[in-house]
Structure formats: structure tokens, C-alpha cells
Design goal:
It is a single chain. With about 350 residues, the chain is of the alpha/beta class. It contains 14 helices and 9 strands. The strands form 2 sheets. It has a 5-stranded parallel beta sheet with strand order 2-1-3-4-5, sandwiched between helices. A 4-stranded parallel beta sheet has the order 7-6-8-9, with helices on both faces. Strand 1, helix 4 and strand 2 form a beta-alpha-beta unit. It is globular.
Length: about 350
Amino acid sequence: MKSLDTMSAMKAIDPKNVLGSIDLFPDQCQQAWDDVAKLTFPKEYASADSILIAGMGGSRFTPRTIKEYCFGELTVPYEITDDYRTPGFVGKNTLVILSSYSGTTEEVLTIGKEALKRGAMVTGVMAGGAIGAFLTENHLPYYAFNPKNNPSGQPRIGGGYLLLGHLALLSKLGYIPDQTTIVQTAIKEARKYAALVSADVPEAQNPAKQLARTLLGTHPFLVVSEFLRGWINGFANQINETAKMISDFRYVPELNHHLMEGLKRPETLHENGLFVFFRSDLYSPQIQKRFDITKTVVEKQQVKTLDINMTGSTPFSQILMGNVLGSYTTFYMAMLTDTDPVAIPWVDYFKKELSK
């Protein structure tokens, strides 16, 4: 479709109502925060000396977002595993959180079973499934959410449940300071921002629709730092799955130590490459200076750049607003190429072959 302002055309390409799920992201966040507040956990769950998260895909980048956001406040080491292996440090003093939207991820279930054998404190964030059954059978507490605010049923569009589910668990168990005021402010600001980028806002006034058109046909390098490091993983994943397009995410200052020397080749990089710098006034002064110089280096090598200024009064507000921007943008990218945002034929093929 050529126009992003025709709602009827969007609905025809979006039979599973991904747009409806995106619209409800703030409600997902509020529901998860309120739900976890009602749960109870054994007191020993609040005294672990390490935390391990097991998750894949959309159920991995959400706790990764929380890890980066809470980096300076976490009172114990917080690690994430995204395969079948259980780290050697996992034992009776480790809190293991199984993260799986569907509750059916085999890698996560494998970690859960091994962690239980080692006597770890095991919990989880999920909608149910085999992992939920495993936790229930072993009388282990966990957050089982009702995905009523995700009509599409797609895990990557239901990130509010996992994002706030993980944050609420850490806050409730005392591994980070209480987040209630911060969360309520962030959800409020995310709602206001969503009203600026929703589908009924014409492209001429809609930053997400404009960004979608800019990104389409490029190889985007999404550049962030500090508390936005986890969020950008999710944005890149949605570009892959929802928009069916390649993406790459990078971090300042790490990229300053190698990537800048790799911009000469291939020649197509100077035609299709696009460095998108997500800037924030909440970054440290050293990082803001590095962003300025990095952009200059990239442009001197004839690679295109784009600045996006993240708004929001706190780091967590900027994270939630970033989630809103990413979900709407990648949805609009799919619309521009008449692509069903739900369909993931190659992932489905892979899973089918793996099960043989």
C-alpha cells in the first residue's frame, strides 16, 4: 500500500489485529504491574545471591531491557541465558526466572528442569503452557498472565506483560528499589505518546509513519547506549519479524573501538546503510559527546545518518515510549510492503524441521 492513512487497507493486511495489540501496550504494562502486586512468594526468594533469566526471542529482550535499565541498582548479579545451557553458578542460592510468553519454549523448560535439580529457587513469567504446568506440578510460584490485552496473540506484540512482569518481580522481591511511582509516570507518558503515533494520525503529523518510510529499503544500524541497550534489541527483532527486513543494533561506546573502521566496504553500504542515532538527554555527558563524534565519523565516510530524540521524563518512560515507537513503526513498515505482520514462514519452517 502506498498510503499509511487508509485504515480499511491496513485492516485487510492485518487479519490478526496486530494494530489492536500495539494500541493496548500501555494496558498490558498496567495489567502486569497490578497482577504481580497481588502475588506472594516464599521469603527465601528475596534473598538470592544471583539471578538467572531463561528466555528466547521476545521473551528474552524484555528481561534484557530490565537488566540494562536496572544496571546500577541491582543488588545481585543478573544474567540471561538464551540456549539450552545452564550456567555453572546456578544452585540453591540462585533465583531462576523462566521467561516464555507462550510457556512452550523448549530451551526455557530445559533450563527450568536443570535448575530445579540443582535446588534453585525457580519462578517464571508466562501465559501458561508446558512451563506453567511444570511450575504448578512442582508447587513453584510464578506469574501467569491473562493476555487479554494482546488480541493478536503474538508474543513480540505482547511485550508489556513480560517487561512489567519482570520489573515488578524484581521490585516486589527487593532486588531493586520500589518502582511504583516511576512505572505509573512511564505508563501515563507512553499513553500520551501513543496518541501521537497511532494509525488514525496522518503521516504528515505522525513520527512513526515517517520513520517507517525512511527505514524501508535500508540496512539500519540502530545506535543506543546505557539504559536503552536492551530496548533496541526488541526494536531490531520487530524489524526482522514484523517488517521482514534486516536490522543491526549497536552500542556506544563499544562501537567506537572497532565498527567505525568497517564502513568502507561493501560499496552497497554507502547506498543502503543508515545509522539511526537514538539520542537522549538522560545519557551521561561522556556518551552524548561520543554520539556527536560518532555521527561525524559515519558521515565523513559517506554513510547516511538519522537522529531520533528520545523523550520522556525518566529512563523508564523513554523505554516504554521507545516500545511504542518501535511497534508502530515496524507495523507501518509491513503495511508499506503489503506484508502480513504476523506471518513468520521461515521461523515456522525451521521449527517444523527441528521437530522431525
